[in-house]
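Figure 3 (text version): structure tokens given as input.
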């Protein structure tokens, strides 16, 4: 099963035909997940848009059509461990991205993204 990164959802909502086709394909084989972190990023971006009122309905509908994964105590612990591991190796990744990665990892999901930074996070990643 799959977890969509924020940038994939943005492309999906903007009508990228290839992304829409790919999302439909993975949806036919099971549930689609996003993280609450991605959802926060999406609503942040939406409210910075001059078309916020028009787009709110679209984002709300999308959010209601997927399963949303949250942080939990074990995932927060995993975040701290993974952050320290990467830091000791001299590798950095944005905190929000690392949260998305550990949420996907903890739920045994493949993270679909366009962001190569996730390759360092130790999470199963599929690049689109």
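Below: residues designed for each position.
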């Amino acid at each position: 099963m799959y977890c969509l990164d924020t940038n994939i959802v943005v492309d999906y909502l903007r009508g990228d035909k290839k992304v829409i086709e790919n999302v439909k394909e993975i949806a036919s084989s099971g549930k689609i997940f996003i993280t609450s972190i991605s959802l926060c990023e999406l609503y942040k971006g939406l409210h910075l848009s001059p078309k916020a009122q028009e787009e709110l309905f679209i984002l709300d509908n999308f959010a209601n059509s997927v399963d949303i994964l949250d942080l939990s105590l074990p995932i927060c612990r995993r975040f701290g461990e993974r952050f320290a591991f990467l830091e000791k190796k001299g590798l950095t990744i944005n905190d929000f991205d690392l949260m998305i990665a550990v949420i996907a990892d903890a739920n045994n999901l493949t993270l679909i993204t366009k962001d190569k930074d996730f390759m360092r996070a130790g999470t199963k990643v599929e690049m689109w």
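The CA atoms of residues 45 and 51 lie 11 Å apart.
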